[in-house]
Amino acid sequence: MKKVLVVLVLGMTLGMNAQEDIERYKLYPTTNIWTFLELDTATGLMWQIQYDVEGDKRFKSVLNDFEIADGNIIKPIIGRFKLYPTQNTYNFILLDVTVGTVAQVQWGFDDDTIRGIVDIID
Q1: Can you tell me the distance from the alpha carbon of 94 to that of 105, in angstroms, rounded to the nearest whole number?
Q2: Are 67 and 43 contacting, i.e. CB atoms less than 8 angstroms apart?
Q3: Most exposed: 4, 24, 105, 107, by fewest CB within 10 Å?
Q4: Element (H or E) spanning 92, and its range?
Q5: Phi and psi dihedrals of 26, rounded to 5?
Q6: Cβ proximity of 63 and 72 under 8 Å
Q7: Residues 31-84: tens digit of each pLDDT
Q8: Could you give the count of Cα atoms lying within 13 Å of 56 in the half-sphere of its Cβ?
Q9: Shortest CA distance to 95 belongs to which of 110, 85, 109?
């Protein structure tokens, strides 16, 4: 009976570890078939990625070029930041899962002035 319990507890522990978020960089699809948002899940850095099949409209543009993570944390926490789509095609919500802060992320095609990030202050 003790061996079965040990195996069961060990299996549960290994299973929980397998679900940890280990991806430093993630691509989030937008509703535009050509556009993704790339997020550094440890720092909050973000880029707009566009691809095409012709090869003349591919680009990578900065959405956020400053690290949002608290400077007091020595080691970056992978999985700290997550993006959530909104009903607005060009907007996502960025969540810091460690402290609960949120920001509005906006991407677009026409001009760099419409791309960026703005804190949502409560």
Answers
A1: 7
A2: yes
A3: 4
A4: strand 91-96
A5: -130, 145
A6: no
A7: 999 999 999 999 999 999 999 988 788 889 999 888 887 666 667 899 999 999
A8: 1
A9: 85
